[in-house]
Design brief:
The chain has two domains: about 140 residues, no CATH class; about 100 residues, no CATH class. About 70% of the residues lie in helices and about 0% in strands. The protein is built from twelve helices and no strands. Helix 1 crosses helix 2, helix 5 packs antiparallel against helix 7 and helix 10 packs antiparallel against helix 11. About 20% of the residues are buried. Bound molecules: zinc ion (ZN) (2 copies). The site of one zinc ion has 7 residues, from helix 4 and helix 8.
Length: about 260
């Protein structure tokens, strides 16, 4: 049996009526991590090692700051993160400050460097390339995104496990309304890791059948939402369409903080 700390939340999320059970799991986790990084643990050395190194992405800095709680704590961890990164940036910038703008005599050009970094091939060596690499890494790194990715992978493992072993869960799964496209992609990727080839085939068949059925459904609900702006439909009932726009956005991009 898989660990209960993962199976309980998975079963709970799949028992809710929603556009994507994995969005429920991820948004709950995200709230817990925001609480954690604003709580007392933020001053613990283990936690600081991670936040000093990775910091947070734009979304997570925004969520942390907008809570308007423990701004001193957030200020302190941001300060030590800046200090650590500034040390690295200063080191990387040293040759540039001395007037060297790229790899010596190797036909360095900014255009080719950016193109190469963009296509993730081996970048030119040299001081500008080192600095760019550092900045790109920093842009992508986030303590909370890293933890979300890890735990969501545990949840996906559990979903596949329950689906393979428990007929009751398999039934529940087939009655869902599909997933957002982000979590659909994660599920499809996880099948390769966690399902046997024959289970994978059946899982993907059920998954895509349900996904397409419910994307058709939500598209129709959204269309009816737009029609309700036409005076001719004034008196017609809304049906399920009143909140079809935020649900459609979630279906496309995953949960977001729409007001
Ligand atoms: Zn989702
Ligand atoms: Zn993040």
């Amino acid at each position: 049996m898989k660990e209960k700390i993962y199976t309980i939340p998975v079963n709970e999320a799949f028992s809710e009526d929603c556009e994507c059970p994995l969005c429920l799991l991820e948004s709950k986790l995200e709230r817990e991590y925001i609480d954690y990084y604003l709580g007392p643990s933020l001053m613990e050395p283990d936690c600081r090692i991670d936040t000093n190194k990775k910091g947070f992405c734009r979304r997570h800095y925004e969520l942390l700051y907008n809570r308007q709680e423990n701004r001193l704590g957030l200020g302190l961890i941001t300060d030590t993160h800046i200090r650590e990164q500034l040390g690295k940036i200063k080191d990387a910038a040293k040759p540039l400050l001395q007037g060297s703008d790229g790899a010596k005599g190797s036909g360095f050009s900014w255009g080719s460097l950016t193109a190469k970094l963009g296509s993730k091939t081996q970048a030119d060596s040299g001081p500008a390339a080192n600095l760019l690499k550092l900045l790109l890494e920093l842009e992508k790194s986030c303590t909370i995104c890293g933890r979300l990715e890890y735990t969501m992978d545990r949840y996906l493992d559990v979903v596949m496990y329950l689906w393979s072993k428990e007929s009751e869960f398999r039934q529940t799964f087939s009655e869902k309304k599909g997933f957002c496209l982000v979590h659909l992609r994660m599920l499809i990727q996880a099948t390769e890791k966690y399902l046997s080839p024959s289970n994978r085939k059946e899982f993907l068949r059920v998954l895509m059948q349900q996904q397409l059925e419910h994307m058709d459904r939500i598209e129709q609900e959204l269309e009816w939402f737009t029609k309700k702006f036409d005076y001719r439909y004034n008196d017609a009932p809304w049906g399920n369409s009143k909140d079809a726009l935020p649900r459609s956005i979630q279906k496309l991009k995953g949960y977001c903080d729409l007001k």
